[in-house]
Structure formats: C-alpha cells, structure tokens
C-alpha cells in the first residue's frame, strides 16, 4: 500500500519537473523570434554598460570602460549562441535532454564555471598574447583591446548567423593578435605563447576525438558486444559515472576551493579519487533499479546512459564556463585595469562585475540564440545515441578541464566537435571491421559498390570540410578585422 501511495506522488513530481522544462522550451522558442531575441539582447548589453558606469566610478576614463563593457557583453552573448552548442548538442541530439532541459542545465553550470573557476585563463588572454610593455601608452593598449573585443564578437556573430560552429577562442586570440600588430608591430606579439596556443588548437581536437573514440570502443567491447548486455552495463556504467565525477571533484577542488583553503595537486587528486569511488558506489543500486525488466538489446542501454549523459553535459558546461569566459572578459579586464590605474604591464585583477557580465552574457546568448547550432552539432554531423553522446561529452569535459587548469585558452569548439568526429569516424572504422569479419565468415556475400560504400559513411563529409575551413579562416579574419577597427578607433580618438 505504501508503494502504491508513493508512485502517484512520484509521478506527479516528475510531471511538474517535465512541465517546467517544457515551459522553458516554449519560452526559448518565443524569444527566438526575429524581433524579441535581439531586443532582449540589446537590453542586456545596455545594462552591462550601466553596471560598468556604476562600479567603475566617475573618472575621465568612465566612457571608455562603459563602451568596453558593452563590447564585452556583446561578445559574451555570441559565445553563448555559438560555443555552448558544442556542449549541449550531443545530449539534445541523442534525445537524452529536451532543448529546454539542456538550456536550464547550461545556464546554471556555465555561470558557475565562469564565476568560480574562470580567472586563470582570463589572465592568459588579457596579457599573455601581446606584451603590454611594447605598446606606447595605456590609451593605445585600451584601443587595441577594444578592437579585439569588437572584431571577435562581430566574427562570431556572423558565423552564428550562417550556422558555422567556429571557435570563439580563435576569434578573440586572432583579434588580440591583429590589434597588437596594428598598434606596435609584429614584435608586440608573444610568438612563443601563440605557438603554444596554436599547437593546442591542433592537439585538442585530436585528443578529444581519440578520448571519445577510446571510451566508445570500451563501451562497445565491454557492454554492447556482450551476450548479456544488461549485466555488463550494471558493472561498467557506474564505473564510467565514477570517472566523470572524480574528474569534476578534482577540478572543482583545485579551482573553486583554493579561494577558501590551500589545496595542492596531490590533495585534489585524492579528493577526486574519493569522489569518484563514492559516486561509483552510489550509482550501483541506481543502475540496478533502472535495468530491471529491460530487454537484452542495444536500445535498452539508452535508458542506463541517461543519467551519465546529463551529468556529463553539466560537467562540460562548467568547464566551458571556466575556460571561455576569458574570451569575453579577458580584454575587458585589461581595459578596466589600464583605465583605472594607467598600468598595462602589471598583474591583471578581475573585478567581480566583469566576471558577472561574462557569465550572464554567455547564459543569455544560449537562451536567446543557441538552439540553432545545438541542433546542428547534435544531429547533422553524425548520428548520436546516449552512449555516443556520453563519450563526446566526457571526452570534451576532460580535455577542457585539463586545459583550463593549465591556463591554456584552447578552443572548446575544437575539442567538442573533434570528439563528435572521433565518435563518427570510430563508428565507420568499427563498421568496416565488422563487415570484413562477416565476409570472412560468409565469403559468398557480395561486395558493396563504391557508390553504396560512400553513401553509408557515418560522418557527413560536407560538414567536416566546412567546419575545418571555418577553423582555418577564423584567426586571420578576426586579426584583419581587428587591425581595421583599431585604425578606425585611433583615427576617431586622436
């Protein structure tokens, strides 16, 4: 009797939660209308400028900081519209999350990551690419940072409009580099740092793809290709969730708790280990309950990967917020520093109001303009189910977390999309491997025609080539645009 009494209340609570997500999805569809979304975005941008005026105070440079805050808010909106699609796309494409649920999770965790753990990468963007001491005056430095902000925001806005998932990190680094060259010549650029960052742009998508493919291979080998798939899932799904939780616990300890207590790297690893083991133990009965009555087939496994995929999407949003808030507020923090103290070579302090503009701008951009690219990343590159999407999200999260911990502004777009391609190309390889094995077992089976083999490719080659081309052109395009904008600002201000 107690169990029967519990079930209606439980279902009623679940219905209410689903109703909230449904309402959020309807709200998102409403604000995506041509006139509503830009209007809300404009209000946010103006509020960012007002906040800058209030918090910076009345000085001769207040107008400059207000304009910079407007540019920073505009950039943050574009990051939310473009980059966050790479985090939520796999979960939505796999039908593990509705669009409304994905937006709700991303808004919370993107903001938390930016506010808790965003400082280190901000410093790399604001003073690591262009040597401040090589620029003549603080005014010229401010103009260069403003040009970088505006050019990168315009480029990402254009890319979002045409439906291309470009890297906002590429855009802002290219903008900073272009403005630095325009203001002080090629010697102003820290080419060693640029070389390291450029290398990470090549390594990060490859690493993301390899890690995602490795996890998918592990799931196929240990779960999908087993005779008793459900029994295998009861063993390994809790382990996979534990790995994810351990990584998140270690990272949060290093980045979030350091403001309260001193935590060394070995201590953070220990916290991660404890968190991972605890999560693994907690997930064992959960997965056991979920697996009761499931048929022994691949379709049933999707249910068991629902919770891990949702949690991994939240983890990736946190990591993205920590890493990519730098693209919006790194140059803004440098402008505030130079405008307030006149110093352009010292350590950059990041006011809380600057971080808040970046965090909330990313969230607003996702809510207002994100669904278009979420659908593209989630369903138009390769077909994703919950297992594949989980591999993408976990791989991307681990890679971004390591990069953010090192203070390296890698592209989350490259990592996440590289992981999607890694899953897709692994599926092609595995399909070919199994087809060859079946031919060995049954030599009488006819070979497929070349046209049919091309049609059966599991990764859309046109998307692959388009995305690679967009990645290649982003840095020079943003740099050129930034140089032009810098010359225009200097001509007006002189």
UniProtKB/TrEMBL annotation:
The keyword Ligase does not apply. The chain crosses the membrane at residues 36-56, 62-80, 92-117, 140-160, 198-219, 231-251, 263-282, 303-322, 350-369, 389-406, 412-429, 464-489. Signal peptide: none annotated. It is a multi-pass membrane protein. It holds the Pfam family PHO4. Keywords: Membrane, Phosphate transport, Transmembrane, Transmembrane helix, Transport. Its main location: membrane. Coiled coil: none annotated. It comes from the Bacteria. It is found in: Membrane. Belongs to the inorganic phosphate transporter (PiT) (TC 2.A.20) family. PANTHER family: PHOSPHATE TRANSPORTER. This is Phosphate transporter.
């Amino acid at each position: 009797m107690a169990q029967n009494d519990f079930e209606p209340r439980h279902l009623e609570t679940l219905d209410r939660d689903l109703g909230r997500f449904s309402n959020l999805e309807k709200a998102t569809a409403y604000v995506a209308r041509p006139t509503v979304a830009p209007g809300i975005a404009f209000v946010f941008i103006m509020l960012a400028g007002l906040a800058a005026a209030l918090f910076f105070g009345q000085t001769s440079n207040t107008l400059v900081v207000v304009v910079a805050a407007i540019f920073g808010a505009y950039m943050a909106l574009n990051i939310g519209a473009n980059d966050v699609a790479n985090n939520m796309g796999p979960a939505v494409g796999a039908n593990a999350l509705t669009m409304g649920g994905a937006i709700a999770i991303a808004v919370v965790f993107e903001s938390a990551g930016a506010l808790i753990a965003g400082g280190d990468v901000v410093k790399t963007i604001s003073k690591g690419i262009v040597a401040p001491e090589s620029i003549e005056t603080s005014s010229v430095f401010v103009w260069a940072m403003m040009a970088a902000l505006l050019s990168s925001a315009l480029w990402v806005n254009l890319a979002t409009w045409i439906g291309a998932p470009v890297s906002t990190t590429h855009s802002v680094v290219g903008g900073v580099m272009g403005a630095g060259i325009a203001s002080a010549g090629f010697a102003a650029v820290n080419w060693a740092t640029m070389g390291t960052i450029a290398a990470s742009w090549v390594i990060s998508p490859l690493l993301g793809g390899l890690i995602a493919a490795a996890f998918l291979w592990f799931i196929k080998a240990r779960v999908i290709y087993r005779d008793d798939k459900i029994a295998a899932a009861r063993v390994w799904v809790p382990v996979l969730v534990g790995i994810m939780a351990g990584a998140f616990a270690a990272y949060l300890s290093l980045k979030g708790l350091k403001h309260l207590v001193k935590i060394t790297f070995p201590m953070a690893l220990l916290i991660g280990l404890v968190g991972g083991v605890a999560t693994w133990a907690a997930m064992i009965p959960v997965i056991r309950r979920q697996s009761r009555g499931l048929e022994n087939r691949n379709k049933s496994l999707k249910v068991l990967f629902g919770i891990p995929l949702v949690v991994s999407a939240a983890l990736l949003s946190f990591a993205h917020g920590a890493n990519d808030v730098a693209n919006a507020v790194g140059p803004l923090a440098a402008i505030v520093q130079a405008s307030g103290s006149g110093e352009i070579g010292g350590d950059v302090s990041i006011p809380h109001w600057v971080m808040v503009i970046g965090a909330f701008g990313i969230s607003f951009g996702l809510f207002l303009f994100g669904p278009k690219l979420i659908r593209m990343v989630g369903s138009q590159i390769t077909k994703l189910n919950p297992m594949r999407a989980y591999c993408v999200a976990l791989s991307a999260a681990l890679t971004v977390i390591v990069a953010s911990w090192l203070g390296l502004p890698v592209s989350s777009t490259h990592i996440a999309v590289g992981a999607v391609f890694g899953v897709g190309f692994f599926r092609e390889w595995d399909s070919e491997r199994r087809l060859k094995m079946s031919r060995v077992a049954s030599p009488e089976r006819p070979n497929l025609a070349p046209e049919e083999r091309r049609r059966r490719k599991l990764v859309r080659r046109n998307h692959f080539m388009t995305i690679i081309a967009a990645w290649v052109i982003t840095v020079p395009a943003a740099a050129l645009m930034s140089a032009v904008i810098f010359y225009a600002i200097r001509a007006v201000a002189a």
